[in-house]
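Dear colleagues,

I hope this message finds you well. In preparation for our joint manuscript, I am sending the Polyketide cyclase (Paraflavitalea soli) sequence together with its predicted structure, so that both groups work from identical material. I would be grateful if you could confirm receipt.
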Amino acid sequence: MRFVKLGLISIVGLFVVILLISLLIPAHVRISRAINISASKDSIVAHLADLRQWQPWNALTNAPPRTNPHYSKDAFSSDGLQVQLLHAGTDTITTTWRLETGREIGSGFTLYTADNTTVIQWYFDFYLKWYPWEKFGSIIFDKQLGPPMEQSLAELKKKLETTP
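The corresponding structure tokens are as follows:
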């Protein structure tokens, strides 16, 4: 009985320590990547605001596990992902991504123009619950999303800079 009590107290104590450490991790995480493109802001906005134009360059919507993809002007859907265009302005484009797990992730593009170059910043916003496993899991979001975001932006740059 004494060992059972010690085991229960140890488990509760370990959970409390893990919970306290997880509270140090922020509840809002933003993953972002940016690229400079030598193209007009209007042509870039036209490509970003029409989700049908995402097919050639967006690695996240073209990932191999995506089956039955369907692109429309303001939405993308597949068996595991749905993307909805919420707002398309001259400087910002906002979307929401819904995963097959039901999780909704805010995303968007912000555009800045300087000289003859437009800077595109693509971001994903994650709002986390207080659960320790969710907070610790957020540590790897940058490693999961960063490379495909960089690849996608490079493809977009190549497409826009070669298009007359």
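For the figure legend, we might mention the following. Residues 141-162 form the longest helix (22 residues). Helices lie at 2-22, 41-49, 132-137, 141-162.

With kind regards,
E.M.
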